[in-house]
Amino acid sequence: MSNKIIPWKNGIKDGIPIALGYFAVSFTFGIVAKKAGLTPFQAVFMSGANLTSAGQFGALALIGTSATYLEMALTQLVINLRYCLMSCSLSQKFEAGAGWPHRFLVAFGVTDEIFGVSVCKEGKLNPFYNYGLMSVSIPGWMLGTFCGVVSGEILPARIISALSVALYGMFIAVIVPPAKGNKLLTGIILSSMLLSLLFSQVPILSQISQGFKIIILTVVIAGIAALLFPVKELADER
Amino acid sequence: MKGNTYLYILVMAGVTYLIRLIPLIFMRKEIRNVYLKSFLYYVPYVTLAVMTFPAILSATANLWSALAGFSVALILAYSGGSLFKVSILACLSVFIIELMV
């Protein structure tokens, strides 16, 4: 029993910063959704069914231009392809005996943030930890959407601005501690940030969408790192 | 002709869910190949670093509050703060700087 309840509670605790960050982002999404002509129910339904910020913003633009369903499907595929990479990484954290239902449920919650927090957790993945993360962050995402659609004025801009940094703070809290005292990881993280900066500044590279930038840089940097510094004792480290 | 909003939502939800699900369903065995294992080990660090920087610098109302949030998060994370603590105090520092600037 404690094998389920305790990871679930830990997930809820770690999920609170995700929920706060989601609230800020989905609040903005709600405002845009209203402008795009969605009803509050449609906007909240879209958030609950998709859990993807870039994908949802992209969808609003497409709905506005009366795109075909095929265009919608392809756009989502392109914008959200990074989740595929994340699920590959996550699949190796699953215990071999973990049943199908867990895989189906965990898959629904593979977002940048839930992935980042759960994949860096030590040891094998306990699906109940992911359920804990999901059970606060998904309501945060939907509630933010609702508040944004119903009224853009409920929260002062200051609060939204402050909450916007929550997700990044969380990412930093995930990647910095393992890199402490580890020159290799520190080097990889710093090069990733530098190249990411480069991609945002150099004229042609800055045209690449955020989703593709993440895929390209991840494949290139992790690919080179794995070639130069293969990790042998993974079982002990993760 | 304008499409049905609910159909749009279902199409996008279906595609997005399949992207997330397929690797979890088909990669059930542990990968033995050292290169692939190492690659997947490095993926989260690269992905999260790329997503954080430089995006964090333009997330708030001005650069100064963003830099404050970024520095506070780095220092607290380095000294071993929990996800919750790092995240909340980063938000708080953004809030305080924006009150002042």
Automatic annotation (TrEMBL), chain A:
The keyword Transmembrane applies. One of its GO terms (cellular component) is plasma membrane. The chain crosses the membrane at residues 12-33, 131-151, 157-177, 184-205, 211-231. It comes from Desulfosporosinus lacus DSM 15449. One of its GO terms (biological process) is L-valine transmembrane transport. It is found in: Cell membrane. Belongs to the AzlC family. InterPro entries: Brnchd-chn_aa_trnsp_permease (IPR011606). The keyword Phosphoprotein does not apply. Keywords: Cell membrane, Membrane, Transmembrane, Transmembrane helix, Transport. It is a multi-pass membrane protein. Its main location: membrane. This is Predicted branched-chain amino acid permease (Azaleucine resistance). It comes from the Bacteria.
UniProtKB/TrEMBL annotation, chain B:
InterPro entries: Brnchd-chn_aa_trnsp_AzlD. It comes from the Bacteria. The chain crosses the membrane at residues 6-27, 39-64, 70-97. Pfam families: AzlD. Keywords: Membrane, Transmembrane, Transmembrane helix. This is Branched-chain amino acid transport protein (AzlD). It comes from Desulfosporosinus lacus DSM 15449.
